[in-house]
Structures are given as structure tokens and as C-alpha cells.
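Notebook B, p. 112. Complex prediction, attempt 2.
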Amino acid sequence: MEKAAAALGAACEVRPGMRRLLLTSLFLGAIFVAGVPVAFAVESLVNKKAPEFARRDLSGTSLDLRSFRGKVVLLNFWATWCAPCKLEMPVFTAWQRHYGPQGLQIIGISMDDGPEGVRSLVAKLKLNYPVVMGDARLGERYGGVLGLPMTYLIDRNGVVRAQFQGETDLNTMEKELKLFLVRR
Amino acid sequence: MIFGVLGRAGPISVLALLLAACLQMHAQGPFSAPSENSAFSIPQAQLIQPEELNRLLHTGGGEKPLVLQVGSRVLFAQAHIAGAEYCGPGSQAEGLQQLQNRVAPLSRTTFIVIYCGCCPWNRCPNAGPAFRLLHGLGFTRLKVLYLADNFGTGWVDKGYPVERSK
């Protein structure tokens, strides 16, 4: 690989200082292509800007996270096969009804493989907030959604303020939520 | 009054029932009871801890198990145990069929580790049915990776090697 970097460097007249960078890039590229085991970089999103995304929800309406700036957003990653997720969602529906007028917007992101079962569960639970289909790419942008449920609390400025993973105490989540609803 | 109706054994029976109910609630968390398909139903002796599996996979010499993920494809695509294969969700008939097809040509003495990690252990809908299928097929060297909360905290956060799907 060193030879390859040197050859490429020579061919492109790369300055010597750039050679290390080139070598590192080639190494990382090789890892990506070959699928060599790597440690997954886990970085907390708390106090960072929430990664933006735009998708169509289950009803076909376009949903852009940026358009919710000014609201407190509860971004909930879930799936139809996830038992604790299904226990949370009726509570989220009640919160959307109760806190919606104060500026809460809940958004569901289904991590199911396809939308078929998702549509029927959304109808069965009578969810009153939008649901979009997620995928591995979106999961990675949120630091790797490697277990469900996973919920992010995003403040009115689009900054992630809390992350709730797994079977969460919903009273704690509600308290945090209320704190950010009163802040303008 | 109740104790009087139940007789002398009444108080003890009522206390025993209350204690059993409390223990059950403690074991299962604050929500409703997990289904019989949950990973909770897998015998303790069949479990393997993340530390042990990582050691098996990354120390030379010993036999390395075939590692099969029996949960979500979307989660698998983000990160999975290096070298693991995706075999479909154990909670669905298609997933179990995929798993059955994968193991059909294998010797029943093949060392297999299955894992999911989609949800907290006692809520996982996939590992239990997948385990029962393989056990029923006669695999004798079968382990299930114990991931208490999920794959993220149980494996990835510990810095054990993972791959992403290409």
C-alpha cells in the first residue's frame, strides 16, 4: 500500500507532506471496500445539531426536520417488532395531543424493512404524529441506531438535548420534555 | 377477613403470591410481561457473554463459531459482528425459513452462535424462536449471545470489531 501511495503521489506530483494523508486515506478506503472489521465510532449527539433529513411520511407528505425549527421535537426510532416501542407510542400520542399546542412535535422513524406492517400498526394505534421510514443510512447519521427504541429530544434551535435508549422511564422523559417546552 | 376464609395457610399463600408477583415484575421491568417467545425463555446454560464471544473470535488456535444475526436487517446493515451473516428475523416465518435454509447443509455439531440485540433482552422477539428452531433441528453446540440492552451497548460500545454491510 505504501508503494501504491508513493506511485500515486509521484504521478500526481503530491507534496511530501501530503503523502501521509494519502496513505491514511488509501488505508481507510481499503477497509471500507474490503469490509475489514473496524471499531464503530460511537459519538454522542447530545448538545450537537440534530442531523437533518427530509423524507416522505407514510401518507406521502414531505417531511423536513428543518421545518420544525422553533418546536421541541421528539424523534423516536422504533419498529413493529419492538415490544417496548409499542408500549411507548400510545403515550407519545397522548403527549402530542397534550403538549402539541405548547410546541411539541413528535416524529416517528420506523426501522422496519418495509412499510406494510408499519402502516397497519400506525392505523391500529391511531398515531397522531408523522411517521417516516428509516434505513441504515439515517441510523448511521444519528450515531448508529443499534437497538430500539431510541429517542432524541431536540430543542427549539435544532440541538439534540437528550438521548433515551431502550426501555426508558417515560416520567423522566416527560420531565425533560417539559423543561424544553418552557424555554423559548 | 380474607385470611379467615383461607384458613391457617391463607396468610402464607397470599404472601407467597405477592412475593412471586414482585419478583416477576422486578425481572421483567416496568412494562407488561414479555411473551413466551422472548429471549427470556432461553436456558441460562445456552447463553454466551459478549466478552467470551469476542475472545473466541479473535484469539488464534481455537475453533471459531459460525455467527448468525437473527434480527433486523436495518440494524445489521449499520453494524454487525465482524464475520456474522444475516439470517432474517426469528420472529417472522420468512426469517425462520431463511435460518433453516442456511443451516440445512451443516453438521449438527457445528458450533453456532446466534444473536439479535434489537431490544432489551427480555423483550427480544427474535432470539427465542431462532434458538428453538435450531435446538429442535438437533444442533448440539448452540449458543445465544446475551445482549442485556441491545447490540449497541452490549457489543459496539465495548469496542469489539464490527462490520457494516456493503
